[in-house]
Amino acid sequence: MKRTLSLTVVLLLLISVIFTAPVFGASEVPKLEAESAMLIDMTTGDVLYKLNADEMRYPASTTKMITGILAIEKLDFKATLTADQEVAATLGTSLKLKDGEEINAWDALNAMMVGSCNDCAVLIAKAIAGSVYEFVNMMNAKLAEIGVTKTHFTNPHGLHEDDHYSCASDLAAIAMYCMQNETFRQIVRQGDYTVPATNKSEERVVDSTNLLIKDENDTNRIYVDNVLRYCKYPGVFGIKTGYTKAAGGCLISAAEKDGTKIMSVILKSSSMGRFADSIKMLDWGFANFRTIQCTHAGDVLEDTVAVKRGAFNKVGVKVADDIFYTIPSEAADSIITTRLVLEESVKAPVEAGAVLGTLEVYESGLKVGSTDVLAVESIEKGGILSVFGVEDATAKKIWTGLILFVFLLIALLATYVIIKRRQIARKKAARAAKLKARQEAEERRRQMWSRNYDQERYGRPPRDEDDR
User: Fold this and answer.
1) For the segment 354-372, what is each residue's pLDDT rounded down to a tens digit?
2) CB 356 within 8 A of CB 343
């Protein structure tokens, strides 16, 4: 994932719209001592200015960016590296490693990137690949992976060789790739680094060769637009210097101001001119451009998408990616607008993160970017009532109500039956009582008639049956 992101950023830089002259009312580009230069918005990859950016130049120690990123990717930082005669004999700026000296890999890497120590570059190359020759093959393979095409390296440190070359646009792409790595960023922003004592040397402190990071030495003051100033520049966080007689002064610098991050590439300047040129370019960049954020990854939008046959009949949506855009510093944020394009509906099931539309970004009516709009959550297939657009939660309430209604109906029916049976029983009992009363009355009448008959016929009163 990180590798894909890094390559994407580099690709954006390589295909970015290039501003070769002042635009959008930008002030005039300052006059440079450098023969090649570039200025890039590090967040968007937009090239804000270029000067002979594709012409072949010698990169000097800016070469160490590739050596450094390979070390980060392949070295065990806890490993102990042992210098040999080849390392000790390395020319140019060095840590003065001795044959047989043992140094921690992390310390060697920091000394190489902060102090630009060439002997540490050779030590690292041999530790990774076994030989400088094999390491150079790895370097050029890495260049091909990044996608640069005008660069060829023959050593890990940048000391001059005719076949060791690059250009401003390629070095910018390399720097953009390396700066995607957090460890790399941590190393190159340091103003100095303390190398602990080794088996053959006392503790050493190496100062950064990038005077923009911390230098406030009166002897290093420079003129920038006829103003004498220190080299230190506010907000600088890297990246790498370089100098040889053939390459001249080289400096790839990065600085941040008010959320805008700008990279300056200066090649073929002078030893101190590279710092003045970089300051000019950074000043010009911050004065004329700024980066704004058009979309925020993860932002949940108010809009929703209808879901057919789902447990829920709609799903929320969120923004997939951050989108940044470079605008003139004088422009208002309102020149950037967005347009949301969503699916009218989707059929369940819907997976969280499913693409349901796009959020398009426009500058003054011209589309300049877009990002996917994703489902916030998963929506499972709904029950029977989802056919009618009824959510499962509502359907559950309906089914619960229906069941309660049926039970109530059954209870009412049972109560009715019991009441009716009791009414019938009471009616039967009443009829039986009436029948019995009639029978008893009839019996009394019969007995009365019998007595009256006996009296009339026999002249004697009737007798009770028991008296017979």
Assistant:
1) 999 999 999 988 999 999 9
2) yes
